[in-house]
Amino acid sequence: MPRCCVDRSAVSLVRWDDGHTRRGERLRGDVRADAVLRRAGDHPRAIPAGAEILELGSGAGRVTHELIALGHPVVAVDSDPRMLDRIRGAELVCARIEELDLGRRFPVVLLGSHLVNRPEPGALLDSCRRHAGGVVLIERHPPSWFADPAGVRDVTRPGPGLLAATVDHTIGATTWTEDFVVRDHDLPVLLEEHGLAVERYLTEDERWVLSVPRQRCPGCRRTARRCPA
Ligand SMILES: C[S@@+](CC[C@H](N)C(=O)[O-])C[C@H]1O[C@@H](n2cnc3c(N)ncnc32)[C@H](O)[C@@H]1O
């Protein structure tokens, strides 16, 4: 069984999947992805209409289905086949993001669901960079959330920049809990280390970030800022 985003039993994972799918149905009119893409579209480096999107950590397709409805071909990647089973209309790839190498680049790479807030997200970002042929859209917990984390309980700060907490998910009569640890990274610095650069924040709370690949020196392959030449 592939590793999932947090350790959880098969039973709670299936519940989470059910909940997410049901929430996805409820969210269909909420057009969160639509709003984000429209903002990105205002930008000079607009997401071209109909651009193919590589969605990393697609889950059960909550955002995927919105993107497809907007006319984007989507390649949906998730390490859990039970999640991918729920998706219709996308190319499905069951793989760990860190090890993914599709051998091609995409005009849009999407890394949602705060995966970038993992304590060590370097391999995730390397995968974004490897597949980036245009922009990389990232959803994160912004610094303001770390100062005042909403929707979670039992918050502790186990180390510099780290926040551990528990979140309760309730769907109908069923509630289950998830423990997690996230880090408040200095995003511009982190992205720079992985060959990406913040282009602009797409939302006022700086939750959605539009980033672009940094150009690499053709000689040493380092990003322009690190190249000694
Ligand atoms: C919180 S869910 C969110 C799904 C979707 N992005 C959404 O917003 O509805 C995160 C998903 O990422 C997947 N995931 C987490 N870490 C992954 C990894 N390293 N490689 C591939 N998939 C991963 C999990 O299996 C899960 O389906």
TrEMBL record:
Q: Which residues form the Methyltransferase domain?
A: 53-131
Q: Which molecular-function annotations from GO does this UniProt entry contain?
A: methyltransferase activity
From which domain of life does this come? Bacteria
* Signal sequence region: none
- On whether Transferase is a keyword of this UniProt record, the answer is yes
Coiled coil spans:
none
Give the GO biological process terms: methylation
UniProt keyword annotations, A-Z: Methyltransferase, Transferase
Answer whether the UniProt record assigns the keyword Transferase to this protein.
yes
Q: Which Pfam families does this chain map to?
A: Methyltransf_25
Stored InterPro entries: Methyltransf_25, SAM-dependent_MTases_sf
Provide the protein name.
Class I SAM-dependent methyltransferase
Q: Which species is listed as the source?
A: Lentzea tibetensis
